[in-house]
Specification:
Radius of gyration: 19 Å
Distance between the termini: 36 Å
Number of strands: 0
């Protein structure tokens, strides 16, 4: 737990620094400017289709409902709502991926406990694919309207944190079926949830287009190291 919390804390510090630098480059009191207010989710869907993404009727209906909810919101509020929706999709995708990794008895227990869980592995894979498509469409929308979609931005940080939470999530799902209650595990989960909530809040506050150069450097170093590794 200490390593996980320490790593998330490091991400929080990175977010604070990036937000501070971005605030120095712009008037913090100025309202956010929507770069292209005429760019809609329909435009994003057309771009997604150009990428050969399959958008079913149910997904399109959900996106239309989401866009209707943005009407009347300020630019900053609409951007926050879009980021929140993407976060929800990431969380749901990660949960479905972890469910697929569980033992058959645990998966069966989850499916019997609630119809909200996918009732088969193929259904779970369908949900994972659908969330991936929705994330891509929302990113196209955020990029087109707010210029808030680039490599190594807030989503890269959120995905990194989501990956680190996987072990804790799996433990939570297993205990949800077995009914086992461990004080240490409960305290661990509460601590993770608290720090994770702080991370989410900080990411939602970042200005549009903020980029994490440290993540970019780490990715470049990893790429260089992999190129140096001798081939088998």
């Amino acid at each position: 737990m200490n390593l996980l919390l320490a790593t998330i804390a490091v991400l929080l510090v990175m977010i604070i620094l990036v937000g501070f630098r971005a605030a120095r480059r712009q008037d913090a009191d100025a309202p956010m400017t929507v770069r292209n207010p005429d760019f809609t989710l329909a435009d994003a869907c057309r771009l997604a289709k150009d990428e050969q993404l399959d958008i079913d009727a149910g997904l399109r209906q959900g996106l239309d409902a989401f866009e209707s909810g943005l009407q009347g919101l300020s630019g900053a509020a609409a951007l926050t709502a879009t980021r929140k929706r993407i976060m929800e999709c990431v969380d749901e995708r990660v949960m479905q991926e972890e469910i697929l990794e569980l033992g058959d008895d645990i998966k069966q227990g989850l499916r019997q406990a609630s119809s909200d869980f996918p009732q088969s592995d193929p259904e779970a894979r369908e949900r994972i694919a659908r969330h991936a498509i929705e994330i891509r469409i929302l990113r196209l929308f955020a990029g087109g309207r707010f210029e808030d979609a680039q490599a190594f931005d807030w989503l890269a940080v959120y995905e990194k944190a989501a990956g680190m939470r996987r072990k804790a999530l799996r433990s939570y799902l297993e205990r949800a079926v077995t009914g086992e209650t461990l004080d240490a595990e409960e305290a661990r989960q509460q601590a993770i949830s608290m720090v994770d909530g702080q991370l989410r809040a900080r990411l939602l506050q970042l200005p549009a287009g903020a980029r994490f150069e440290q993540l970019a450097r780490e990715a470049a170093e990893e790429s260089t190291d992999s190129e140096k590794e001798p081939s088998a």
